[in-house]
Amino acid sequence: MRTAGTLLLLLLVPALSLASELININTADATLLDTLPGIGPTYAERIIEYRTTHGPFASISDIQNVSGIGPSTYAQIAPLITVGPTPSAPVQTDSASSTPPSRGATYVPPPTELTLAVTGSPHAYLNVPYQASAVVRAKGAADPTAQITWSFGDGSFGTGTETAKVYRFPGTYLITVTATDGQAKARGELIVDVRNIAMHIASVSGDGITIANDGDDRLDLSGWRILSGTGMFRVPDGTILLPRTSVLFPYAVTNLPFSLEAAITYPDGAIAMRFPADAKPEPAATGSYLVQTAAEEPLQVAPAEEREHISISGSAHDQITPGSAPAAATGLAAAGASLPADTRPEEPKKGLPGLLRSPWTLSFLGIMALAGGAFILL
User: Fold this and answer.
1) Cα–Cα distance, 32 to 81 (Å, whole number)
2) Three-class secondary structure of residue 31 per DSSP
3) What is the mean pLDDT, run by run of 10 residues, along the chain of 378 residues?
4) Reduced to 3 states, what is the DSSP secondary structure of residue 200?
5) CB 146 within 8 A of CB 136
């Protein structure tokens, strides 16, 4: 019985000794760090990654610099962890006396102060990507580890050093930018006036399509598209329209088919403008065309299946639009009122009642006369 108790005591002593040891967060592997309350495999890997990049922890409280480990988690693990004797010096006199980095990395302490520079134009255009960038510095040098967050003033946000925001509605927006690296933060802002774009398709000719910039700012057409007939041309990156100028995009360059109608789309594919300005993507399915005859008869509506056969002679820009009389037909109707007397349509002969002038009535009387003659002969 005494032998069994002694054996049990010998087995428990190593376990109790191990439980009483603190975990060195500068040397422990992921498996050992995973045993800490509230850490788990994900945070264990983050702890190892942090000390690999920034060097060993100077104190146990520095573990809160690891993403995701906050005060509540730190309160649970603080009695169970240590940094060991290595970083015991409270003050570092120079870089030569810094703690030797693990895995050959140079230890760089988190910055205590950041500066943020935000650049971008004060003007933006609807449906056109607005380009802006931000640079974060710590002690005069770029800080590539800082996290940058953008708030565009319309409820949307983004991240990263560069952004391309597309505004859908005009107005004046305040863009705020926040940079964070550990406990250090910096903030910057931009005021952007979003307006309608000032440009139009000036003309469509046999040479190509001319686009005019009506505004006082340069227009970047990178990624825009020009549509003509069934063809599409993507404007190359870096294509700029100078203020108050127009540029011809020749068919020899764009390889677009010639068409009386053209359109330009924003980089995202939305239609920006058309030529002519009132051109529509396709005719209304239930519309009708009004046709005026030369003899000033009542207006007639051409059925939908016959509309494609209606044509008008004249210049290349003459068009038939739903709800309006064709120009040629209207002109002919107006001229009919001034035709010479001998060219006017014959007036109906007078003297006979209206019923007797009907061809149906005359045909019926002829048949009756033939039937009566045959009856007499019989």
Assistant:
1) 11
2) helix
3) 48 46 86 87 88 86 87 87 62 43 58 89 89 90 90 93 91 95 90 92 94 91 93 94 95 94 91 82 39 39 41 35 38 38 49 56 75 70
4) strand
5) yes
For residues 78 and 74, give the distance between their C-alpha atoms in angstroms, rounded to a whole number. 6
> Alpha-carbon distance 164 to 150, whole Å?
11
58-66 contacts: CB < 8 A, separation 24 or more? 58/83, 58/87, 58/99, 59/83, 59/87, 60/25, 63/25, 65/110, 65/182, 65/183
Helix, strand, coil percent content, the chain, rounded in steps of 5: 25, 25, 45
What one-letter code names the amino acid at 161?
T
Please choose, from the candidates 32, 98, 87, the residue with its C-alpha nearest in 3D space to the C-alpha of residue 60.
87
Positive or negative, the Cα torsion across 37, 38, 44, 47?
negative
**Could you tell me the pTM of the whole model?**
0.45
* Main-chain phi, psi angles of 201, to 5 degrees: -85, 110
**Whole-Å CA distances, 3 to 11, 13, 14, 17, 111:** 13, 16, 18, 22, 61
Using an 8 Å Cβ cutoff, are 246 and 211 in contact? yes
- DSSP letters along 354-371, please? TTTT-HHHHHHHHHHHHH
**Distance of alpha carbon 39 from alpha carbon 162, whole angstroms:** 34
Which tokens in the block code for residue 167? 């505004």
Nearest to 66 by CA among 98, 107, 25: 25
Hey, which residues does 193 pair with through a beta bridge? 123, 172
Structure tokens at 133: 């960038």
**Residues contacting residue 368 through CB under 8 Å, at least 6 positions apart:** none
- Among 39, 105, 106, 36, which residue's Cα sits nearest to residue 70? 39
CB atoms within 10 A of CB 254: 17
Task: Name the one residue in this structure whose structure tokens are 């207006």.
Answer: 299
